Input
Amino acid sequence: MKTKIIALASFLFLATFTSCTSFLTPAVLGNNMGYMPKAMGADSVKSLTNVSASYAGSISPSAGTDFELGMANISRSHTFKKSNISYGMYGYIGKASGGDNDNSTENLKNYLPAFKKSISGVGLRLSAGLHKTSANGNTDFRYINFENAVSFEGGDYTKFRQEVYNSHIPDYVAVSNKKVLWTTGLSTEVIWRVRDNHDFRHAFRFFIGGTPNFANSFRSGIKTNDIIRGKNSMGWVFNYFLYIKRFSLSFEMADNVNYAQKISLGYSFQ
Output
């Protein structure tokens, strides 16, 4: 059964393509800009390490490829008077599935046969930004953050993308050969703690950015050449973060090349 993905809006790569084009994109896109928890400006402890586990689902654009991922994440953050920095790494495994069940000769001229392939990869994250703490110390406005993720993707699905890329491509197929991905952009965030219980916190974060040169990594069949020409990888990520006594829950949705959703459970310590 295909993964169900709900996106709030669509600002991203290939937002106007036809409904029958199959896109083979890197699996982690849409799930590579995860939330990295930070101490608040009024906290006595200014540095935190966070470990978390995530379940992520995504789908590439149009008649897309479905992805299911399990992710492990670790990050370290430092909060200063007016600035902050976070860095971390993640690893992921999962599966990709897609293609068409009709394997007739005529159909294979237009579409890929059905496939199911394994996914694996690792990545690095870096975020640096500026913030302002409210007078009572209960709210931090992290008004601008510069965020980056570098991912290295492997597994049978990546090999499959390379094979399709280097062979004759069906008419309604577009495939990227990218294995190393750099996604970058800016985010803004507000986080506040409950006035009578500082162990309860809520945060909302919005990121907008893209993956440079991503559109240039595609080859396509003759029916899709005009669709990918001149497009870009701009997209967005939205997070809700809940923190309760060192434990955390993060829910994320993204329209960042792939349409994606992710839920993460974590634990923070000094």
Notes: The two ends are 42 Å apart (CA to CA). Residues 1-19 have pLDDT under 50 and may be disordered. The first strand starts at residue 22 and ends at 24.
